[in-house]
Amino acid sequence: MSVGHTEVTGEPVVSCGDEHEDCGIRDVLDRIGDKWSVLAVVELAQGVRRFRQLQRAVPGISQRMLTLTLRRLERDGLVARTVYPTVPAQVEYELTATGHSLTHLVKALADWSAQHRDSIALSRREWDAQHPESTIR
């Protein structure tokens, strides 16, 4: 971890030993930190959902991206997929115990976002005014 990771608490947020080691967490954080996974977890925290229910609940997600997201979450043990032998097959998705354990962290992040959104918006406006040539948005 870099020195910048120690400025808030005086201690590294994550300590792996080697300065450049990620402890194997980067892959997990990439998964649970991506836009679609978080939205799927938030929706599944409400209970069991069928594919189309999830697709309607996550605006802007394509069928392919939802399929990939759910498969990845299933592979990581966060989502359970149940197929019922009907015609057509009925498929339901729900969070596993591990998936449910993630929801309090997602809620904490959402709460933090709501608490700080006004100051972040103000900072963005100020930065944009000071850097009108920038394409960062």
Can you describe what's shown?
The protein is mainly alpha-helical and 137 residues long. Helix content is 53%, strand content 10%. It has five helices and three strands; from the N terminus they run ααβααββα. The longest helix has 34 residues, at 97-130.
Strand order of the largest sheet: 1-3-2
| Straight-line N-to-C gap | 27 Å
SSE order: HHEHHEEH
Specify Rg, calculated over alpha carbons. Answer: 19 Å
Architecture blueprint of SSEs:
Layout: H1 25-32, H2 35-44, E1 49-50, H3 51-57, H4 63-75, E2 79-84, E3 90-95, H5 97-130
Antiparallel strand pairs: 1-3, 2-3
Summarize the structure.
The chain is mainly α.
Features of the shown structure:
137 residues, mainly alpha, three-stranded antiparallel β-sheet, 3 strands
